[in-house]
């Protein structure tokens, strides 16, 4: 295995949640960290996410194991006071509100239980007792107990503040400086060269060009809505709710046909008294705009599930682009055939949940210490680079 000596300095390319978390864990060990960011912290997916820190939508396998490790790192950071008021532990309720969704949710409960996740199957009476505001159409629900919620940009702010690492804003990485095959000495930017003993690429959709992995990453647009405050209704919801169709849109469970635009409803009661409602999962990169068809459909679905939302005003709609990997698993680890470049990207709709844990894992790899998770399923070397941008 390639081994790097303890790095004196590390450049992190991209300041989303993964870059900020990597900076936090490296700086905590005395490494001199520079983050370069082509826009500003949380400017891309991290600033446009819902924020479910959740195992509820995962199927058993490496992503479920990663999500459980991700939740555990959130709990540690909460206990240390770093994510106080930013990470809110709360359950997720996966609901079946049509005959088609009943077997989907039941199969999912079986899958979660087989992986040791704490989950309760609630029949019609129990779920309506728990959520009086739900439509009578809801037939059953699965309560996934140990989930939570975090606002991505707030996590980034806390991690940067706690680490003291400064971000060099509006500096775009153009290429890696390759000094000899398999080794880099820094990054070429529009502002000139920056040198360091190791480089971490956490540049979301900008990562593949730097790594010569064209065609491996793909965009998945998502549209979300935020309502005004409705404290009474909000207080009557003990956790977030997720439609059985969301599992279909994520490919977690088979059954029915996922809709073309990947509609799958999630309603999150925020600590502000507002509701965050999503969303779509579209196979395109069509900017940060919303369209009326999607907004109207998400609202219709939300009101069908929680009829009292019809009295709550919509404040704003926004959209972001998730970065997915062709085989559905993120890239986390040493860059193929370069001893001192590391990559962590391709988290699609799970990067808020996984981000802090991935930052910890990447820092461990760089420091040559045991990672908080077996990363072998995520090894970037499963894709061969065409040509490194150098
Ligand atoms: C609508 C929507 C809903 C979501 N909901 C959830 C959810 O409920 N739960 C969950 O866990 N996840 C969710 N996600 C996914 C989550 O937001 C992402 O997986 C996560 O934010 C990815 O973080 P990142 O740090 O890898 O990338 P990003 O946040 O995309 O950050 C990458 C950064 O790199 C910078 N950059 C790119 N190229 C360069 C370059 N060449 N030089 C310098 N800087 C560069 C970009 O400007 C950007 O700031 C959602 C995403 C969307 C869009």
Automatic annotation (TrEMBL):
Name of the protein this chain belongs to: NAD(P)/FAD-dependent oxidoreductase
Q: What Enzyme Commission number(s) appear in the record?
A: 1.-.-.-
Query: Where is the signal peptide, in residue numbers?
Result: none
PANTHER family found in the cross-reference section: FAD-DEPENDENT OXIDOREDUCTASE DOMAIN-CONTAINING PROTEIN 1 (PTHR13847:SF287), SARCOSINE DEHYDROGENASE-RELATED (PTHR13847)
Task: Quote the SUPFAM superfamilies the UniProt record gives.
Answer: FAD-linked reductases, C-terminal domain (SSF54373), FAD/NAD(P)-binding domain (SSF51905)
Please give the Pfam families that the UniProt record associates with this protein: DAO
Query: InterPro entries from the entry?
Result: FAD-dep_OxRdtase (IPR006076), FAD/NAD-bd_sf (IPR036188)
| Enzyme's top EC category | oxidoreductase
Q: Name one GO molecular function term.
A: oxidoreductase activity
Origin, by domain of life?
Bacteria
Its transmembrane ranges are 6-28
Annotated FAD dependent oxidoreductase domain residues:
10-365
Organism, as annotated: Chelativorans composti
The UniProt keyword set, sorted, is: Membrane, Oxidoreductase, Transmembrane, Transmembrane helix
């Amino acid at each position: 295995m390639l081994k790097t000596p303890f790095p004196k300095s590390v450049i992190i390319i991209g300041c989303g949640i993964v870059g900020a978390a990597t900076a936090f864990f490296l700086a905590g060990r005395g490494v001199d960290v520079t983050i370069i960011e082509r826009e500003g912290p949380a400017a891309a997916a991290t600033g446009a996410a819902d924020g479910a820190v959740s195992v509820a939508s995962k199927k058993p396998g490496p992503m479920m194991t990663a999500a459980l490790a991700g939740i555990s790192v959130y709990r540690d950071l909460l206990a240390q006071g770093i994510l106080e008021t930013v990470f809110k532990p709360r359950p997720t309720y996966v609901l079946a509100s049509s005959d088609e969704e009943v077997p989907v949710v039941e199969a999912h409960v079986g899958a979660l239980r087989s992986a040791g996740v704490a989950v309760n199957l609630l029949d019609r009476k129990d779920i309506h007792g728990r959520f009086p505001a739900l439509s009578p159409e809801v037939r059953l629900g699965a309560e996934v107990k140990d989930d939570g919620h975090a606002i991505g940009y707030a996590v980034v702010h806390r991690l940067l503040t706690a680490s003291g690492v400064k971000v060099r804003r509006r500096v775009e990485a153009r290429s890696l400086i390759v000094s000899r095959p398999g080794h880099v000495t820094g990054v070429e930017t529009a502002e000139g060269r920056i040198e360091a003993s190791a480089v971490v690429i956490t540049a979301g959709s900008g990562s593949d060009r730097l790594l010569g992995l064209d065609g491996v990453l793909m965009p998945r647009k998502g549209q979300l809505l935020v309502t005004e405050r409705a404290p009474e209704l909000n207080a009557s919801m003990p956790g977030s709710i997720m439609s059985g169709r969301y599992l279909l849109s994520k490919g977690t469970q088979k059954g029915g046909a996922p809709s073309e635009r990947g509609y799958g409803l999630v309603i999150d009661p925020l600590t502000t008294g507002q509701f965050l409602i999503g969303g779509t999962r579209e196979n395109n990169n069509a900017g940060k705009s919303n369209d009326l068809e999607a907004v109207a459909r998400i609202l219709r679905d939300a009101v069908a599930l929680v009829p009292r939302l019809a009295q709550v005003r919509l404040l704003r709609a926004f959209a972001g682009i998730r970065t997915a990997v062709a085989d559905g698993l993120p890239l986390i680890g040493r860059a193929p055939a370069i001893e001192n470049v590391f990559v962590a990207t391709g988290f699609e709709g799970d990067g808020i949940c996984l981000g802090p844990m991935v930052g910890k894992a990447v820092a461990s790899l760089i420091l040559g210490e045991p990672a908080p998770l077996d990363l072998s399923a995520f090894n970037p070397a499963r894709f061969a680079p065409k040509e490194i941008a150098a």
